[in-house]
Design goal:
Length: 127
């Protein structure tokens, strides 16, 4: 069903502490950022789903603000098949690497999705 304001649906679900995305009912594509039409096939049949939050760093850039510590901006490929831009919060910026496995978390005061780097056992941070 077409949602007139898909961004509102995203924010509502994010505020509940989930990492929402849309799934096309026609072609099965994972859709992020929220839209009214599937970018793969043009269908209006987009249902909400929730990511498990696991993904892989696709790209990383470190920003160096004048009056703040450096921080990484990452593109993460989530296991459900979509990519998001965010940051990694648990390790120094220069330690984030392409290929790192990460877990998404919703910051309650944002709300926004941030990532932590997983250790070899898939738990916690390597920091």
């Amino acid at each position: 069903m077409t949602e007139l304001a898909p961004h509102r649906g995203y924010l509502d679900r994010l505020a509940e502490g989930t990492v929402p995305f849309q799934r096309c009912t026609a072609c099965g594509a994972a859709v992020f950022y929220p839209r009214a039409l599937c970018p793969a096939c043009g269908s209006t049949g987009l249902d909400w789903s929730h990511s498990a939050g696991l993904g892989t760093v696709h790209s990383v850039s470190v920003l160096f603000p004048r009056d703040a510590p450096p921080y990484p901006v990452v593109l993460v490929d989530l296991d459900e098949g979509f990519r998001v831009m965010s940051t990694v919060v648990d390790v120094p910026a220069e330690q984030v690497r392409i290929g790192d496995r990460v877990r998404a978390h919703v910051e309650p005061d944002g709300p926004r999705v941030v990532f932590t780097v997983l250790t070899g056992d898939g738990e916690g941070s390597r920091a």
